[in-house]
Design goal:
Isopropylmalate Dehydrogenase; two-stranded antiparallel ribbon; single chain; binds NADP nicotinamide-adenine-dinucleotide phosphate; ten-stranded mixed beta sheet; binds magnesium ion; 418 residues; alpha/beta
Length: 418
């Protein structure tokens, strides 16, 4: 079979530990035999980040701005213990944080659904994607402990000299105070990424805040979303999509009653909490994909989980591991599909579809990694190693591609002969 061609390079960001091992397996078994892969490779493994004083991370994000699509392996975010383990020169920042701040993007997390894994919420039929605003609010707040009675004030000194002041509380005794902020610019980027992603994935967009209580702060989020929606209204209507705003508590109730199949945009804290609720209710972190979308339409695909350190140490000790590669495979298929769509490469889009279908074939036949065994219903799962799981996918992918390419060829032959 002739390999599938690409025209624009994909930005490839390699990573750490068990996911780095899976990364190579996925490339060798599922990508390179079928696709004439064009990628610009960046090694974001911790050793390389340390060697380059983390320049490699910045360069990989800049390449994503240039080419538009990246696929990223999970990476270690260093802490004190990692400083020792890797003899680091500095406690480098989280690569995801660095990339996110350069691309100014929003992270969308979507579960991979399987008919044999029933969500804890029985009426959920389609995935729910959480879009979490990743800037400000309580994550960039300042706090103060008042030890005695006194007045707490919120003060703003404008660059023009304008002065605003409100009393927060007249404390009769000790208490606590918190000051938080957000910026119009960041909220607008968030809103744009959400509307863009809704159009891209043809899903309704929900947004929720508490603007009945927070009449200035949360209300500003709602206003900006309304303004950005005005730019997208025609595209939404043409695609039959809905933008739906409701209060966060009402949204929670409706999400639980829903069938799924929409994007739920959340403020930073709400997204932090709700993404764990939604992902756990859908089944497993190992089945959660993640994509960072910038307001100008650049994409970075990855798995939502980390480097699976515990499995890596077993692997290093010579044990066979049964780490689930699904989310990482779907990061690749998502990135290659997007590349194919942007470059008008039907074969590449078809390859991405067939790769995902081959994963489902494998799982539906009961060939699974260990983490899924206890979650499956209606099939008798057999747990296999990561390598055996990937080999089973490869076999099914080759069959599917053979058939679909033959189908494409025969359809072409038919149209020529007519
Ligand atoms: P983790 O790598 O997501 O793993 C936590 C646990 O979840 C694992 O020990 C495993 O449970 C289970 N798990 C996660 N992914 C799995 C998979 N694909 N297949 C099977 N089981 C899976 O989180 P962590 O251990 O807290 O973090 C490890 C490293 O990853 C840290 O250095 C952290 O900085 C980094 N991290 C990176 C990213 C990223 O790059 N996006 C995100 C999060 C964390 P069992 O051990 O019970 O089998
Ligand atoms: Mg959290």
């Amino acid at each position: 079979m002739e390999k599938i061609k690409m025209t624009t390079p994909l930005v490839e960001m390699d990573g750490d530990e068990m996911t780095r091992i899976l990364w190579k397996m996925i490339k060798d078994e599922l990508i390179l035999p079928f696709v004439d892969l064009k990628s610009e490779y960046y090694d974001l493994g911790l050793t390389k980040r340390d060697e380059t004083e983390d320049r490699i991370t910045i360069e990989s994000a800049e390449a994503t701005q240039k080419y538009g699509v990246a696929v990223k392996c999970a990476t270690i975010t260093p802490n004190a213990q990692r400083m020792d383990e890797y003899k680091l020169h500095q406690m480098w920042k989280s690569p995801n944080g660095t990339i996110r701040s350069i691309l100014d993007g929003t992270v969308f997390r979507t579960p991979i659904l399987l008919s044999s894994i029933k969500p804890a919420v029985k009426n959920w039929e389609k995935p729910i994607t959480i879009a979490r605003h990743a800037y400000g609010d309580v994550y960039k707040s300042v706090e103060l402990r008042a030890e005695e009675p006194g007045v707490a004030k919120l003060v703003f000194d404008g660059a023009s000299g304008a002065h605003q002041e409100v009393v927060i509380q007249n404390f009769k005794g000790a208490g606590v105070i918190q000051g938080m902020h957000n910026t119009d610019k960041s909220i607008r980027s968030f809103a744009k990424s959400c509307f863009q992603f809704a159009v891209d994935t043809k899903q309704d967009l929900w947004f929720s805040t508490k603007d009945t209580i927070s009449k200035t702060y949360d209300a500003r989020f709602r206003q900006i979303f309304d303004e950005v929606y005005a730019e997208y209204k025609e595209r939404f209507e043409a695609l039959g999509l809905t933008y739906f705003y409701t209060l966060i508590d009402d949204a929670v109730a409706r999400v639980i009653r829903s069938k799924g199949g929409f994007i739920w945009a959340c403020k930073n804290y709400d997204g932090d909490v709700m993404s764990d609720m939604v992902s756990t209710a859908f089944g497993s972190l190992a089945m959660m994909t993640s994509v960072l979308v910038s307001p100008d339409g650049k994409y970075e695909f990855e798995a939502a989980h980390g480097t699976v350190t515990r499995h890596y140490y077993k692997y290093l000790a010579g044990e066979e591991t049964s780490t689930n590669p699904m989310a990482t495979i779907f990061a690749w298929s998502g990135a290659l599909r997007k590349r194919g769509e942007l470059d008008g490469l039907k074969d590449l889009v078809n390859y991405a579809d067939q790769l995902e279908a081959a994963c489902f074939d494998t799982l539906n036949e009961g060939i699974v990694t260990k983490d899924l065994v206890s979650l499956m219903e209606g099939v008798t799962p057999v747990s296999v190693s990561s390598a055996a799981f990937i080999a089973a996918i490869r076999e099914r992918l080759a069959k599917r591609l053979g058939a679909s390419m033959a189908g494409l060829t025969s359809r072409m032959e038919n149209s020529y002969s007519r």
